[in-house]
Amino acid sequence: MTRQEGGTGAMDSKELKELAGADSGQILHLLEDGAPLFQYPGPILLLDREKNIIGANPAAMSLVHGIMSGSALSVIALVSATLSSGGRPQNMKILDEEAGRTTDITALPVDSGDHVLLLGRDISLDQNLRNALVESRQRYKDLVEISSDFAWETDINGKFVFVSTSGALGYEPDELVGHVADDFVSKIDGIQVVTPFNAKEPSTGIEFRFRRADGSIAELEASAAPLHTDDGDWLGARGVCRDMTEARRRDAALAKARNRERLMAYIVRTIRDEMDPKAMLASAARAIARSLASDGCVICRRTDTGNLTVAAELGSAPETFLADLLKSGAETLTPATLTDAEGVNILSYPTGYHQKANGAVVLWRDHVGGAWNEDDSDLMKEVSNQIGIAIEQVASHENLELLSTTDPLTKLLNRRTFQQRLDDRLAKAGEGGALIYVDLDNFKLVNDNLGHQMGDKVLLDVAAMLHDAAGKQDMPARLGGDEFVIWFGSADREAARGKAEGLLKAAGTLAQYAVDETRKVGMSIGIACIAGQPDAPSENAESLVARADEAMYEIKHGGKNAYAFAKDPGAKDPEESGDRSDGH
């Protein structure tokens, strides 16, 4: 028996048979220094029946120490088993955890069973490779089984031949194996669907719809690779499908939220950037209609009586729906989505501020634009909150404007605002009209004898008379105390006379506040007219009031309860005085 240096350490069956047929003397000779077994890289020991070590090579020193110290119990047991085996070789593996080495020990009986030859072979590399392979296979198996991905393989006919045990969209593997994969694909008529189950080329990112076991549809994304024979013939495909349904839903929800946020930012910015509060709601209506792709928009606001009135309108609103809405109380409104008899799709949502209803937003579009969906309603809900705030801002602005421009008691224009607005009117070319100045007769007696509360009632009655006499383009005002004015735009001398006589007639009811019969409450009226001719002298509010006031004092000093016309600017003589009247 000869062995070359540098061998792998493994003995073939022929060499083992030679050793098994050798006697102990021959084996000891082979273990001598420089002999083949001496140079063997694995441990070799020769033991007698009493388990005494007769010979060993250098590689067996650790086993020698273990047997002699009694710590190598497994090796000693192997020797005992071999001696009692009736000449049959025995085998075992020894793991040295400290050295990280695994040794394969073969025990051969020699000398007809009087001795045992132990041959060891380091199989650490083989064992490690085998363990790594087993671990890799187990890892792959575990990953496939616990993965939510749907692993599969199809044959040449497109039928499933393998399906992972989990992640198969609710199916048991047996429910899919043997069936044509494309039969489970959800298809839309007329649309070509690419699936991975018959892949001829490696591919990734294939998206398609697959029917789940419960009948619902899953959005899948697949990667696939073709299978071929050694000759290159196509055998089928293998791949993995990932269920992207929830991811797609999340992406859609995120996109929807971003779009809603963008539209809301646009609407809020439009409202915020509008400098004129009165135009704020009109700008909001345009922004809402554009954002929600509607044919038009109406914004209604709550009146003092609790009903609704149109505050801004873009487009022609559905008449019947809007009429019914305006008849409703703001507190009774609820969100509404409907299609009217004309086929117009309507979306209405109430607005509010601090838990109190203050209006409504109405959108509409025809059948071409389509019906309103849940996303539209969700956006409308957010929009209505902003419009509720805008309505309140407009109301607050109007209230401040009312406080700054009107008399607190009578709600008529105050002196400053009246003069500013009249100056604006007079600045327009060709603006003519008449100013009637009213001063109450014997009003001080009411305050002094009946109290200021009764005096306030008189002032409120006079304010009501001026309101009744004024048209939409006319401006009544309280200058202060018991002094009132009213501007009648475009009124000529005769029209002004009729207005003055009408006021004197209405003032007859003020007699009820008289302290005594000789000093009744009435009106002294002065009238200042402006021709409105291009060559007429220019005049402002202050000079008109002064002229009318001067004419009123003529009545005051001439008997009261009548009217008189002021002289025209530049005239040397007074104009005609009106006939005096007691109002009856």
List the helices and strands and how they pair.
Layout: H1 13-21, H2 24-30, E1 44-48, E2 53-56, H3 61-69, H4 73-83, E3 90-96, E4 101-110, E5 115-122, H5 124-146, E6 150-154, E7 160-163, H6 173-176, E8 185-186, E9 203-211, E10 217-228, E11 234-243, H7 245-273, H8 277-291, E12 296-302, E13 308-314, H9 319-327, E14 336-339, E15 345-353, E16 356-365, H10 374-405, H11 415-427, E17 433-441, H12 443-450, H13 452-469, E18 475-480, E19 483-489, H14 493-506, E20 522-530, H15 541-558, E21 563-565
Parallel strand pairs: 20-21
Antiparallel strand pairs: 1-2, 1-5, 3-4, 4-5, 6-7, 6-11, 8-9, 9-10, 10-11, 12-13, 12-16, 14-15, 15-16, 17-19, 17-20, 18-19
